[in-house]
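Subject: mismatched residue count in predicted assembly?

I count 472 residues in my input, but I want to confirm that the predicted structure covers every chain. Input:
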Amino acid sequence: MNNERHILSAFDRDLETVQALVVKMGGMVESAIHDAAIALETRDGELADDIRRRDKAIDALEHQINEEAARLIALRAPRATDLRMVLSVIKISHILERVGDYAKNIAKRSNVLADMPAIDGAGMALRRMSATVEAMMKDALDSYIQRDAALAADVRKRDLEVDQMYNALFREFLTHMMEDPRNITACMHLHFIAKNIERMGDHATGIAEQVIYLATGELPEDPRPKGESVPRMEGA
Amino acid sequence: MNNERHILSAFDRDLETVQALVVKMGGMVESAIHDAAIALETRDGELADDIRRRDKAIDALEHQINEEAARLIALRAPRATDLRMVLSVIKISHILERVGDYAKNIAKRSNVLADMPAIDGAGMALRRMSATVEAMMKDALDSYIQRDAALAADVRKRDLEVDQMYNALFREFLTHMMEDPRNITACMHLHFIAKNIERMGDHATGIAEQVIYLATGELPEDPRPKGESVPRMEGA
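Triage response: the counts match. Full output below for your records.
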């Protein structure tokens, strides 16, 4: 009996250690989302370069989390819910790595955009969209730490708002491009950034769905609430 | 001794079962890549709808693979290389699910594009790019089944070709948009499709990197050979 209790608490301690790494990684990714939007809006090339450097540390952390999780499984042989929790660590760190990549891509593009004509209001609109996604990501991670399925369900719902922001921006960029062909290249890049932010929202939703799975044992059955993902807009 | 041998072979049998599901999933994803390019080029709305339906089966298969892998870990408590192999099953099926999503997105967009003016040669160029990625995906999965690190390294190298195809298309679409604003909306969608195919190539590379990790115990150290991921092109 005593022995079993000892084994259980050793597993819990190890799980906490690896989850702390996930939380750390989450913090780094939240900062990357935040700073990428700032770098884009203020055309701050140094900040953009810094985000690209920091992405290497995010990638390294994912690798470390994978190794630690594998070690935990090998050492403690967890089952059922415990095992599910360790596997979710691997999934969530992979999602965070993808989001970090998107932030890095935005930083790269903001360097390219710095040499192009500015598009009125685009930087601010993208920062607003990015702030929404950053808050979703924060709440998705909080819901994970607290195993809060209600908060996770709320994150899923908010993705609809991000999809609507993306669709509105898509139309705005089209208008800019049709009005003046000199805007075309910049708008192509801005459109990509909008799409990257929209994808980050999808990934925050992916984390929320993992939390719901952990809390309830089932993935949400209803299709994720979603705005039209391919805006239907005719050519001028 | 006899007992240990029994345990080993039970693990191997279980691993083969779950790997067979990954192979099946890989076949479905290869078909989806193939058909998405055909649906786009021939403006075949029924085929596009079919791809969207089939994506549900791909998603369900990922879920099943996850459950089987978790069951395998819980039941057989694999360690070291064995554990790494089971975890790679989870990773690879997740990558395949992402690629299936990209194929579905292409199918969605090809429905939207069917109502727009055609862009000369775009369908054929995208199908060529898609065929390259489909072959990479096939070889990545073959390298996985055969634990063939040399074939996996070859897949990684070929991603450079896909990046170059993408960059050439990016420039072509820009030219079409600048020549005639009526092409803008169609080119925005086509550009997205090109980017989705380029991302599929990245994912095939991701599978190849898992294979190299399985075969050598280390992720490839050298940065992945890569064309410029954000084309630097000035506005007209």
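Chain A has one domain: 2-216. Marking this ticket as 'not a bug'.
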